[in-house]
Every structure is written in structure tokens, then in C-alpha cells.
Design brief:
Elements (H helix, E strand, L loop, with lengths): L3 H8 L17 H10 L5 H9 L3
Bound molecules: zinc ion.
The site of zinc ion (ZN) has 8 residues, from helix 3.
């Protein structure tokens, strides 16, 4: 086992799913979950408003 992989991750930025809602531009953990579930990058509050008032 080597520690090379651990050292490399420190040098480069780790790719992550960002949790910024496309509707309100706020960061929320529910955004990535809703992206997987619904295909839309929306937080729970925006998702709820879309469900009630579909555009
Ligand atoms: Zn939102």
C-alpha cells in the first residue's frame, strides 16, 4: 500500500457535485438529492413550489 493517492488528492481539487439550487442560487444538501431523484437542480423549497405551481 502506498500513500501516493492520498497525497495527490491534496494537490488537485476534488470534483464534487455542487449543491447550489438553480432556482434560488442557495446551497442546500437537498439539491444533489433532488437532482438524482427528479433531474432538476432544485432545493426542497423550490421543488415544493414547482410542484404546487408548475411552470
Ligand atoms: Zn431553491
Amino acid at each position: 500500500m502506498t500513500k501516493d493517492f492520498d497525497d495527490q488528492t491534496n494537490d488537485e481539487e476534488v470534483l464534487q457535485l455542487d449543491d447550489f439550487c438553480e432556482e434560488c442560487k442557495k446551497e442546500d444538501p437537498s439539491v444533489s438529492q433532488n437532482l438524482i431523484l427528479t433531474g432538476f437542480k432544485t432545493c426542497n423549497s423550490c421543488k415544493l413550489s414547482k410542484t404546487i405551481f408548475p411552470i
